[in-house]
Amino acid sequence: MTNKVHILLGAPGSGKGTQAKRLVETFRLTHLSTGDILRDAVSKETELGLRVKNLMAEGKLVDDDTVNGLVFARLQDENQDVLFDGYPRTQNQAQSLQDFLSQKGIELGTVADVHVPQAVLEARVVGRRVCSNNTCGAIYHVENKPSKQQGVCDLCGSPLKHRSDDTSEAFRARMGEFNSTFQPLLAFYKDRLTFRSVDGNRAPDEVFATLETHFKENA
Ligand code: AMP
Predict the structure, then answer these.
(1) Domains held by the chain: number
(2) Which end of the chain is more exposed for a tag (fewer CB within 10 A), N or C?
């Protein structure tokens, strides 16, 4: 089983998905994105996928028990250290995760909050395009990071797509959810010795350099 888990916190559009991809390569971690797991279930039309499809399209959160169940099952089967991206999202999930980690003797490593002002977030999300091939999952932006050929992934050649929850309307719903759950979540972690707040409103390389330093402290 996993020995250690790290957590990346941040609003939709904070860049945590992009940073997570680099961190997992550098520190040989398993990337555990609850959003990716749920989107995969939706695209495969599993029982879970059909249950959560509408909630996700509206930018609402999936219930804590469902998400905790998915995460704990993955941790049981995992051998490498893990980086969570998009989990925990509520104080309740954070407490359940902490209880699970204590029970299994798993250490909590770095908890990093990638902070970006709200005004910057919407433009980032609405212009985001992602590779439709889930195993690639490369992330682009129509203005800040366009693919070489429009609509085609530079890395694997698959079509790019606009996530159904990356419209302005769904983004505002997701921000509403985020704002109501984030402060209690932050309060849960901010006094831990391994907690770091990182300025995410910089070039991706600069954000990564800061995160890399923090992750080295707890690798
Ligand atoms: P993300 O890719 O992290 O932005 O997540 C996309 C959507 O998946 C969210 O808007 C929620 O509907 C759902 N989701 C992802 N992670 C969680 C979580 N930890 N708790 C509840 N819902 C989640």
Answers:
(1) 2
(2) N
Among candidate residues 22, 60, 161, 163, the one labeled active-site is: 163
Distances (CA, A) of 197 to 85, 106, 160, 187, 209: 15, 23, 31, 12, 14
Instruction: Report CA 137 to chain centroid distance, whole Å.
Output: 12
Tell which wins on pLDDT, 195 or 174: 195
* Angle 49-55-61 from CA coordinates, rounded to 5°: 105
Let me know whether 106 and 142 are in one domain: no
Beta pairing, strands 139-141 & 128-131? antiparallel
Strands 107-115 and 128-131: unpaired
198, amino acid identity = V
Question: Same structural domain for residues 157 and 180?
Answer: no
- The owner of tokens 């300025």 is 199
- Using the atom order of ligand 1, give the atom closest to the CA of residue 60: 12
Per-residue pLDDT of 60-78, as tens digits, reads 899 999 999 999 999 999 9
